[in-house]
Amino acid sequence: MEESTQVFSVDKLKAAIECMLFVTPQPLAIKQIAEALNLDEATVEKALQELRMDYAEGRGLQILHIAGGYQMCTRPEFVDCITALLKPTRTRMSRAALETVAIIAYRQPITQPEIDAIRGVNSDGVVKTLTERNLITQMGRKDSPGRPILYGTTEEFLNHFGLSDLSRLPELTDVTLPEPDQAVLPMEQPAEAPEK
Amino acid sequence: MAIELIQQSGYTIKLPAFEGPLDLLLHLIRERKVDIYDIPIAEVTEQYISYLSLMESLDLNIAGEFFVMASTLLEIKSRMLLPIPPSEGDNEEGADPRAELIERLLEYERFKNASESLKEFEEERRKVFWRIADDLQNYDAPVMPLNLEAMDLLFALQQMLADVGEGTEEVTSIERQKISLRMKMRQVWGRIKSVPDGIGFRELVDDPKSRIEIVMTFLAILELLRLGKIKARQKKALGEINIQAVKEQ
Questions:
Q1: Has residue A47 got a pLDDT over 90?
Q2: Complex ipTM, two decimals?
Q3: What pLDDT is stored for residue A179 in this prediction?
Q4: Is A31's pLDDT higher than 60?
Q5: For B130, which of A72, A103, A190 is closest by C-beta distance?
Q6: Same domain, residue pair A6 and A56
Q7: Does A163 lie in the same domain as A102?
Q8: Where do the H-state alpha helices sit in chain A?
Q9: Number of domain units in chain B
């Protein structure tokens, strides 16, 4: 294509990227843009970051870094306007689904029996629903008896929760862990008095 | 989330909905604000079981896992009553019958907390909208509705009728070809049998009266081959096929 080999000015490149982000519903990777424009990724990245700065304020739209790509979205502060206009129906995930997908996200690749062990209940239905919704996917089989299926999260998972990549998951911590003093003190006494 | 029950007496009872036995147990422990590393197992077990019997009395379906946990709790409780065996070195904690359960509870709680973070992310994401994937058909040239009236349709019909003209009524009758496979087999068999050296396929259909006749001849040959009455040979690819009668034993 001759048109794509032409040299873009920065402004024109930004405008080209803007159009591409506009027409693409899924997050668009730098690589995809660079290939379409026949330019190197660094040039595209630089122009895209400038474009993001242009969108940083005073606009109804923003460019989010989602699932390893970029996506043109509305700004959260205008949610009421959109809801009033379109009355969108967006479902929330159930607690069971959130729990299960959280376990998979942090422990992937993981088998269903391993998920069941952590949750203390059978997760058959939830795993099936999450697979159908393309939030998780099969990632081969574990090399153990029965060769159970291994599950992992998908790009749609990142898209659903608005994460740029898995490293953005909050650290897994014991939020309600008692203060160290409280935890240690009651244990110390019996330890020093073994006749308990 | 809560299960709401309206009993016959008219009372409304609200019960928190639990995802599983670990969830229920964690709730009982956290509600009492006790140290998770030092669970008062007797009390918690009692509460846990009374919760299960409440659910049973309300005819709620209780997953089997809840009962497994009840028996685990009872087992731990009974082991707690036994004297602690002499400690092996410094490892007193290893003797705590609650240890494994505590570890499971903490592990579950970590993911429960993580799932709450995910829920917040989901909430934030729900406030943001992006384009829905287009049906690419939208980019096809649209069919424009023409501004027509009923009379236009009538003219169009008239035009079509005029184009056809008065026409001459032609009756075409199609006769069924009276060639049966059985007939053709007999005919082909007769010809092949009469020539001991065999006969070429082309020769067999040298005077075809119709396409159907060629097809029927071919089918007849296939059928005779299947029955083992004849054999067919071909010296080279795409060459003439020689068909010969099989000598009857």
A1: yes
A2: 0.80
A3: 46
A4: yes
A5: A72
A6: yes
A7: yes
A8: 2-5, 10-23, 30-37, 41-54, 79-86, 95-107, 112-119, 124-132, 155-161, 180-192
A9: 2
